[in-house]
Amino acid sequence: MDSNHPVSPVPPPRPNALSNESLSALDHAHVWHPYSAMHNTSAVYHVDSAAGVILQLADGRQLIDGMSSWWCAIHGYNHPRLNQAAERQLQQMAHVMFGGLTHAPAILLVAKLLELTPEMLQSVFISDSGSVAVEVAMKMAIQYWNAKGQPERQHFASLRGGYHGDTLGAMSVCDPVTGMHSLFNSVLTRQFFIDRPASRFGEACTRQDIEPLEAALQQHHRQIAALILEPVVQGAGGMYFYAADYLRQARELCDRYEVLLIADEIATGFGRSGKLFACEHAAITPDIMCVGKALTGGYMSLAATLTTAEVSDSIDCGDPGVFMHGPTYMANPLACATALASIELLLESDWQQRIGEIERQLRQGLSPCEQMPQVAEVRCLGAIGVVEMKEPVEMSVITRQFVDAGVWVRPFGKLVYLMPAYIITDAELEQLCRSVVEVVARQVD
Q1: Residues acting as catalytic residues
Q2: More confident residue, 253 or 180
Q3: Measured between alpha carbons, how far is 73 from 299 in angstroms, rounded to an integer?
Q4: Is 15 exposed, middle or buried (0-12, 13-18, 19+ CB in 10 A)?
Q5: How many whole angstroms separate alpha carbon 233 and alpha carbon 381?
Q6: Cβ(390)–Cβ(402) under 8 Å?
Q7: What is the CATH number of domain 83-347?
Q8: C-alpha closest to that of 49 among 18, 89, 26, 16
């Protein structure tokens, strides 16, 4: 990808009826931020505008964004092509219900997704967010087996260390200990959790790695609707990269025991791992695939769940003869038009070469952390760089240190990681890596 691709300049701050101090006071008093106390004592940084990979804070500071807004803004911010797509669609219609109606942005987006994903995936359900896409996938699997006369298949197998979203169904297949949702265990459906493979990306999958999955499917396949996993890259559950060969063998086991395979590509889709979709590392086709995050280039929330004609036709023929899900904002035209423009923008670029360059620079730039006694491991894959600490970081302290260094990096638990936009320049990425090395070096106690 051309790292000098034109982006809109950072616009000047817009006048507000309220001062920044008043806005901050309102935020503190009434706005509830994610994974945060209502009256959060940690600093919340007010962004006034953004362009390229630069966040313009209301106090005048500029930050290089190393997170691409939780991994979705792959083209950076305020991109002229995406702005134009949204503005053009806005002149036609911002939204129309999808029940009983259709529109070109949704149809063309579905056609593009079918063109890019494995040929067996032929039916696409468009939804609002990644968590909902996972819920949809789980409901598809349950309805499929109900239509097949096996209604007892109401459970799922999932890998430990996985993360699939924050809604109740998605929470049930997240790691029950480290998946941030242990508080809700008593209300979540009990699923079958499999130890994740010890074999790392680039290694062969050992017999010891695959045995837990094989044993679980052999014993419980009549209760299991599907195996759900994040292919190759476990995201928010640990930023862990495992052997692609495990994914291939998992596909074979699912076929042997007649269990559906759900690939959660929400974090890995659209180039993040170095392949357009992470399943390509193992050359496998899932029965159901979830995509989201980077789908719209970070402009607005949109996700999709793709499945085979076998699954969708079976649901059609079963009771009640329809798929039982229907979000109000399903296939929002603004989001679909922007998603189509984002995908086209990605495919027109030399994105594979650019991802390779980012990976090489991440490996080189973060390598000094490997010698630090407080660091357990440094690992990189595609446009993902991870520094795993031996102890959890102090979020409020380390985030402030990154902001003071002129970058936006938001660690969690033991993980300090980068997932930059693909358009980031070499100089910007170098500064990001240098800031991570400097800040990590301070985390001695």
Answers
A1: 35, 163, 264, 293
A2: 253
A3: 7
A4: exposed
A5: 9
A6: no
A7: 3.40.640.10
A8: 16
On the 0-12 / 13-18 / 19+ scale of CB atoms within 10 A, 6 is: exposed
* CA–CA gap between residue 100 and residue 357 (Å, rounded): 46
CA 93 to chain centre: 28
Answer for the pair 322, 299: CB distance below 8 angstroms, yes or no.
no
| Contact predicate 105/333, CB 8 Å | yes
Phi/psi of residue 219, nearest 5 degrees? -85, -35
> How do 407-408 and 224-229 pair as beta strands?
unpaired
The pTM assigned to this predicted structure is: 0.95
How distant is the alpha carbon of residue 417 from its chain centre? 14
The pLDDT tens digits for 14-27 are: 556 788 889 989 99
Extents of the domains making up the chain: 83-347, 350-442
Provide the strand spans (E) within 219-329: 224-229, 233-234, 240-241, 260-264, 288-291, 303-308
Bridge partners (DSSP) of residue 264 are 290
Contact between 271 and 281 under an 8 Å Cβ cutoff? The reply is: no
Cis amide bond preceding 320, omega within 30: yes
Tokens 């790392």 belong to residue:
200
Residue 372 DSSP label:
-
Strands (E), 316-419: 375-381, 384-389, 407-408, 415-418
Pick the closest to residue 135 from 87, 173, 107 (CA basis). 173
Q: In this structure, are residues 238 and 412 in contact, taking their beta carbons and an 8 Å threshold?
A: no
pLDDT digits (tens, 9 = 90+) for 265-286: 999 999 999 999 999 999 999 9
Rounded-to-integer distance, Cα 22 and Cα 103, Å: 42
The vertex-357 CA angle with 355 and 280, nearest 5°, equals: 35
Residue 3: its pLDDT value, please? Answer: 46
Residue 4 has pLDDT above 60, yes or no: no
d(CA 230, CA 208): 20
Q: Check: CATH 3.90.1150.10 for 350-442?
A: yes
